[in-house]
Amino acid sequence: MKIALCYNVRHVKPDINNPQYILEAEFDEPQTIKGIQQALEKLGHTVFLVEADQNGYLKFKKLKNKLDLVFNIAEGIFGHDREAQVPAMLEMLELPYTGPSPLAYALGLDKAKTKEILLANGIPTPRWQVIKQVKDLKKSLIGFFPVIVKPVGEGSSKGIHAANLAHNFQKLKKITAKLLRQFSQPVLIEEFLSGREFTVALIGQPPRVLPIIEITFDKLPQGMPPFDHFEAKWLYDNPASGFDPLICPARITKRLADQIKDYSLKAFNALGMADWARLDIRLNLKGVPNIIEINCPPGIIPDPKENSRFPRAARVAGLSYQNMIKTILKSACRRYHLNYK
Question: Do strands 2-7 and 69-72 pair parallel, antiparallel, or not at all (unpaired)?
Fold first, then answer.
């Protein structure tokens, strides 16, 4: 097949003190893009590289008659609904692509809208509030502590640091004001659940749940809060640190595994996902799985040493990186009634 690999490329390493990184945190590094390209080529496909910059539409328009499918890992470049940009362009040009509709991409990026849909479908999610300006933050309205404070529409733990866990109103107010200034978007105040944390990858059409991953925090430095914040994900979990926080498959009871799978599939369908996605889950005090958020497109770093969560689950399921890519492609072809070649 003739496939366009559509992406946004990161030019700097994760660094919370680098403003350029803040802009590119969700983008993929060149090694990831190269790894996906090589996997597609090893599967026998012809690959066209398309960077999803402000000329993206014109590039796709020029390639339109040469393409069978677009493998989309682009995050979009500006705006609250930026992950919907590339899918919207492709729909306008009638080009098939991997992943869900523009609407699903936009909803998945918005943590508050995701929660509204989960709640409407009877899927547990932690309590939350959305604050648009500091003056709206009133002590009497916050009925749950501790809380995690997050930008409402960012991915890759962007803006979610260890210091974002607030146990009192004064710290909550300080973090909220900082995030409102930094990201110029509403802030999500979310109840912090003290139970175990998991991440769940889904793949295919119909979707199947890959082996569940538990994220552990016992090896974090003393004083680091036990949740999947920026520091835990990008600074401590890297090949140089020798720190592996992931257990896959998770060591849990069949009953809990079935609950997690059930809620994950329901959330995947309720949010209109397709082909692939990854969900973050945390247990409440009663051990009930709560969906925190959904990630699509999820990160798929090729190097196993990098602990990229989606490929890790795929490998445990018996899928090589190349076959993981093939499964996503075949899923998209099935949805569009295309013959996978």
Answer: parallel
Percent of the chain with pLDDT over 70: 94
Distance (Å) of CA 309 to CA 83, 199, 212:
20, 8, 10
Residue type, 126: P
Residue 108 has pLDDT above 70, yes or no: yes
Strand order in the sheet with 147-151: 128-131, 187-191, 147-151, 165-166
- The arithmetic mean of pLDDT across residues 36-50, rounded, is 98
Give me the pLDDT at residue 250, please. Answer: 98
* Rounded Cα distance, 25 and 11, in Å: 10
Whether the per-residue pLDDT at 110 is higher than 80: the answer is yes
More confident residue, 191 or 11: 191
CB 102 within 8 A of CB 272: no
Domains of the chain: 2-104 (3.40.50.20), 127-191 (3.30.1490.20), 197-335 (3.30.470.20)
